[in-house]
């Protein structure tokens, strides 16, 4: 753990928890690095998953329902295909040698579809190069607020999912209001409607947030063909270091 993170861990020691990780499956310590954002911290000692990563894993495991206690157990299942829109995260660390696991990132200067490493490629989420009906699960975490035309991205995910497949995702969300549009993207150029908001990004340092989603997202997903529910973290989830988190689970109905 880097020195600055170690300092945060020491300051927040009262909020650390012991439990079992739904990503790597190990009995571990979840380190709280920020009391103001439990969903993005509570870091697993072993796979470095955060609370929201483990919540996504819990949602997938609840659907697979074949005795798997963690994402790492999917190695033994062998027939579940997952596409993750991120690389070099906890899922990739645990599943990098699993033939049914694929991941991607977007890199300027690379053509979409270019292979970066085995089962990892450059992809534009608004125009994926994967064939129709390729995956049982697509995972995206805090990605779609940064997608210029999110409906295109949701439709692409619908296309590459098999019938009955699931998009399991997280986004910043307001349950009591419509989507807050920060940037007008109807033309070729971005037109800022509000002061720019940037989020941290492991590849680019920071990345522009185009919107904060709201309740109209459900109608948009329903119109594409998804049936969507939200899984909220419960008190029992604390045993897995999952706190203050919500995960969207969209099922491709046809």
Task: Explain how this protein is built.
- There is one protein chain.
- This protein is an alpha/beta fold and 254 residues long.
- It has one domain (3-252): 3-Layer(aba) Sandwich (Rossmann fold).
- Helix content is 19%, strand content 28%.
- It contains five helices and 17 strands.
- It has helices spanning 3-11, 51-64, 90-95, 150-160, 216-224, and strands spanning 17-20, 27-31, 43-44, 82-84, 101-105, 115-117, 120-122, 135-141, 161-170, 180-181, 183-184, 191-192, 198-201, 205-208, 211-212, 226-232, 246-252.
- The strands form five sheets. Strands 6-7-5-4-8-9-17-16 form an eight-stranded mixed β-sheet. Strands 1-2-3 form a three-stranded antiparallel β-sheet, with no helix packed on it.
- The chain is globular and about 50 Å long.
- The model has no long low-confidence stretch (mean pLDDT 92).
Find the CATH superfamily.
Vaccinia Virus protein VP39
Strand order of the largest sheet: 6-7-5-4-8-9-17-16
Number of contiguous helices: 5
**Radius of gyration over all CA atoms, rounded:** 18 Å
The 3D shape can be described as globular
CATH architecture: 3-Layer(aba) Sandwich
CATH topology name, in short, is Rossmann fold
Task: Note the gap between the termini.
Answer: 45 Å
Uncertain residue ranges? none
């Amino acid at each position: 753990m880097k020195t600055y993170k170690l300092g945060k861990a020491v300051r927040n020691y009262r909020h650390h928890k012991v439990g079992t990780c739904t990503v790597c499956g190990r009995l571990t310590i979840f380190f709280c690095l920020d009391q103001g954002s439990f969903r993005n911290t509570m870091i697993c000692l072993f796979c470095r998953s955060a609370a929201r990563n483990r919540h996504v894993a819990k949602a997938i495991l609840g659907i697979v329902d074949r005795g798997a206690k963690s994402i790492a157990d999917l190695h033994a299942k062998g027939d579940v295909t997952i596409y993750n829109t991120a690389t070099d995260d906890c899922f990739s660390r645990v599943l990098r040698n699993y033939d049914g696991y694929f991941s991607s990132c977007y890199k300027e200067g690379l053509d979409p579809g270019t292979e970066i490493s085995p089962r990892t490629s450059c992809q534009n989420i608004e125009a994926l190069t994967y064939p129709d009906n390729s995956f049982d699960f697509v995972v995206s975490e805090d990605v779609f607020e940064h997608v210029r035309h999110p409906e295109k991205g949701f439709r692409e995910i619908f296309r590459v999912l098999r019938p009955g497949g699931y998009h399991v995702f997280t986004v910043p969300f307001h349950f009591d209001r419509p989507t807050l549009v920060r940037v007008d993207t109807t033309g070729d150029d971005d037109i800022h409607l509000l002061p720019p908001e940037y989020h941290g990004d492991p590849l680019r340092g920071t990345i522009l947030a185009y919107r904060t989603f709201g309740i109209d997202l459900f109608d948009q997903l329903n119109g594409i063909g998804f049936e969507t529910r939200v899984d909220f973290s419960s008190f029992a989830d604390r045993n897995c270091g999952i706190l203050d988190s919500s995960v969207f689970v969209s099922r491709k109905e046809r």
